[in-house]
Amino acid sequence: MNYLIEYQWGIFITIEILSLIALLLFGAIRYFFDKRKLSIGFIFLFIALLFIEGILAFIIYRMTGEFSTFQMVIIIFLIYACTFGINDFKKLDRWMRGKVGKWRGKELLTEKDYEIIAKNKDPKYVAKKYRLSSFIHFIVFIIAQSIFWLLGTDNIGEMLAYIKDFSWVESGSAENSPYPNDTLYAIGILWGIIFIVDVIYSWSYTLFPSKRKDN
Length: 215
Hints:
Blueprint: H1 2-6, H2 8-32, H3 36-64, H4 69-82, H5 84-104, H6 111-119, H7 123-152, H8 156-164, H9 182-207
Helix pairs in contact: 2-3, 3-4, 7-9
C-alpha cells in the first residue's frame, strides 16, 4: 500500500482528469445527442470518483497518521462539490441548454428554468442568495478553523488568548500560533483571506444593489 503514499498526487490528478472527462461526456450526450437517461450515468460516475477521492484521503491518513495538505485539498474539493458546486453545475446546465437549444432551433429550457433565470435578474433575490452563501461559508469556516485550533492548542483558554492577540499571524509559521503545523497554518491563513474577500463580495450585493435586469 506504500505506493498510494508515493503516488498520491498523481492518483489524485488522474481522478480529477477522469472526473472532468465524465462531465464533458455528460454534456456531449445530454446536450448534443439529447440522451438524458444515458447522460445521468456519467453524473453517477463523477460522484463515484469523488467518493474514491475521499476514501483515498482517509486511507493515506490512516497509513501516515498525519493530516497533510493532500487531505485538506481533497476535503476542500469535496466540500465545494457538495455545496457551491451543485449550484454552479445547475447554472452551467441551464446556460448550456439555452445556448445549444438556440443553436439546434429547439426549446431545451423548461418553465421552471425561465422562472429561475428571471429570479437571478432580481437584485433583491441575488442579494439574498449571496447572504445565504456567505452565512454557509461562515459556518464551514468556523467549524474547520475550530478543528485546526483544537489540534494545535491544549484548551479553550489558550484558543481565546490567540483570538485576543492576532500578532502570531505575522510570524509566517505555525510556531507560537494556534495551528499544529505549517501546513494547516498556511491553509488557515489563506482560507481566512479568501473568507474575508468572499464576505465583502457577497455583502456588496446587499449594500450596493444593482438595478434589475430585464433582458
